[in-house]
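Before going further, learn to read the protein records used in this course. The integers have meaning only within a learned vocabulary of local backbone shapes. The record below shows the convention in full.
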Amino acid sequence: MNLAIGELSKRTGVKIPTIRYYEQIGILPEPPRSEGNRRLYDETHVQRLGFVRHARELGFDLDAIRELIELAGHPSRPCEKADEIARAHLAKIEDKIARLSALRTEVERMTQCSNEMVENCRVIEVLADHGNCVHETRR
């Protein structure tokens, strides 16, 4: 199978500039080229790009994906490192959820404003003075 980059993009849902970028940084191996210098992709590229796209959708950064691809290339090795990468990513997700929950609580609190005049508006007051925030994750 020899796919042009446009067909690869359609099959995987990954935009052409992103495919080229992944090639440039070594996440996707450069494909052979035709006599006319067109890239010619095969099923290996489709599978790799699917792996990368799924990992990106789950929020893994490119360094983690690069490590996971390396691990996937050695199926007889133990999967401890892959688990470690996933656990580290999960910890980041849990941290983000905690920060977002704190932000939601703060915005909910600041929108419970019964004043009718902007001069006494809780939203404006809190945004004008960060000291009026009560959430603990001020960053």
